Amino acid sequence: MIKRLRxxxxxxxxxxxxxxxxxxxxxxxxxxxxxxxxxxxxxEETSLFTRSIGETTDIVTKEMYTFLDQxxxxxTLRPEGTxxxxxxxxxxxxxxxxxxxxxxWGDMFRYDRPQKGRYREFCQxxxxxxxxxxxxxxxxxxSLAMCLLETLGLKDLKLNLNSVGCVDCRRVxxxxxxxxxxxxxxxxxxxxxxxxxxxxEKNPMRIFDCKEExxxxxxxxxxxxxxxxxxxxTLAFENLKKYLSLLDIxxxxxxxxxxxxxxxxxxxxxxxxxxxxxxQQNALAAGGRYDNLIQELGGPPTPAIGFAMGMERILLAxxxxxxxxxxxxxxxxxxxxxxxxxxxxxxxxxDRLRRKGFYVYATTSGRSLKSQLREADRLCVGYTLIxxxxxxSRRVVMLRDMENSTQREIPLKDLEDELAKL
RNA sequence: GUGAGCGUAGCUCAGCCCGGUUAGAGCACUUGGCUGUGGCCCAAGCGGUCGGGGGUUCAAAUCCCCUCGCUCACCCCA
Length: 422
Prior knowledge:
Layout: H1 13-32, E1 36-37, E2 43-45, H2 46-53, H3 58-63, E3 65-68, E4 74-77, H4 82-91, E5 100-109, E6 121-130, H5 135-151, E7 157-163, H6 167-182, H7 184-188, H8 194-202, H9 213-220, H10 231-246, E8 252-253, E9 265-273, E10 283-289, H11 293-296, E11 304-310, H12 311-320, E12 332-337, H13 340-355, E13 359-362, H14 369-378, E14 383-387, H15 389-393, E15 396-401, E16 406-411, H16 415-420
Parallel strand pairs: 1-5, 7-8, 12-13, 12-14
Antiparallel strand pairs: 2-4, 3-4, 5-6, 6-11, 7-9, 9-10, 10-11, 14-15, 15-16
The chain binds one RNA strand through helix 3, strand 6, strand 10, strand 11 and helix 12.
C-alpha cells in the first residue's frame, strides 16, 4: 500500500473542522486590521530564496526542496512566505507609495527530520506590512499576532523581543563578538564547538542559538547587541517598547533572540507557548523587520515588517490548552428506506431536499432498518425519515425525532414545509 | 546528518525476556436475540504476509543479523 511521504500528514475530517475554525477566526481578524489576502505560487525560481533568506542559512544550505524542471531551470518549493510575497509585490506593482498590508496562507516545504510540531510540508499564515518604518507599525503587527492567538483561546503567551539592528550596527557588533569569542577569557573557558567556530566567521550572532553546554557558558558574558545599536535603531526600539506599553502588551527582552533568516533588521520577535511539549518547538509565531530585503530583490528602498505563524503548532497548542471549538448547529436528517422500490423513491426525494438546502444522509445499499437507524445514531443526526412499502403506498413518510424517540407521519407533499419548521 | 524507542486485526495493545497445539483481548464493524425502529445488554461472525528479507533450530511473533518504515529527541526552525 502506498503511504504518505515522510514529514507530511493528512487532515482527516474530524481535524479539518479545527482547521476551518482557525481559518475563519483568523481571516476575520486579519481583515479587521486592514490586511488583504495574497496568494502566490508554491514554486519559485531558486534564486529568490537563496538571495533573500541567505546563502549560509540552514534553510538554504540543507532544507530546500530544489529540482530542475524539464528545461533545466532550478525550481524550489517555497520554504517560507515572505520572499514570494515581496516578489509578487514588486512584480504586481502594488501602489508603491502607500502602506501595503498583505496576508497569506499556505503550505511551506523544508527538508528536515520531522518531529512533534515540525513537518516537511507545513502550513503557515503570515502577514507583511510593506512601506513604513515607523515603530508604531511594529507594535501594531505584534498586537495583531497576539490578538490572533488570544482570540483562539490561547493564554499565557510569551512575547520575546529584540532588536538586531541595521547593517551598520551589526558590522560593529560582529567585530565586538569576534573580539570577545577570541579573547583570552573565553579561550580559558574552553573551546567553542565546531559549528560555532564556523558561525563565528559567518554570523557570530547564531552562536546564541547553540545548546552546547560549553558554548552556553561563554554566551552568558558575551556583549549584547543592545550596546552596539546605532542611535536611530536605539530610538526605534525605544519607540516600539513605548507603543507596546500603550497597548498593554507585556514583553520579555531577549538580547539573544536571533532569527534564522538573514534578511531581518531591527525588530525581531517570537511568541512562544511554554506549555508546549518540546521546549525547542514552542514558537507559535515569529517575525520581524526586513528593511533591506525589497531593495536587495531589485525594488526601491522600502522598509517592511511581517511575521509567520505555524498552523500545526497552533493546533497543537489548542489541544494542550483544551480549547473548545464551537460547532455550528444545523438540522441534519438521515433518510432510511426499506426495499428497492422505496429506495428509488427516496433517492429522488433526497436529491430534491439537498437542492433545497437540507443536510441529508442516506444509506447507499439496502440494509436492515436496524442497521440504518444505528448509522443515523452514529452520525448524531437530529431526525430520521423512514420510507417503507407501507408509507410509500399511502404517500406518507415517517419523521422520527432521534432525541426523544417520537415519530409522526407526514404526507410526502408536505415534507419540505415540515422539515423547514424543524 | 546524529542518537534513542517502537512496528502483532481497521484502532489501542497483550504475547517476546524463558522458542512448542488452530496468535489473543478491548474498541470498531456485520448479523441475530427484538420478522419495520437507534443508544444499553447478551451472543455469534468478519477481520492477521506477527513491517520485509535472511540465519539458527525438529520447530520462530518469540533468538541472531540485515533492511525498510514510523515516532521522539539533537542540529535548526513555524
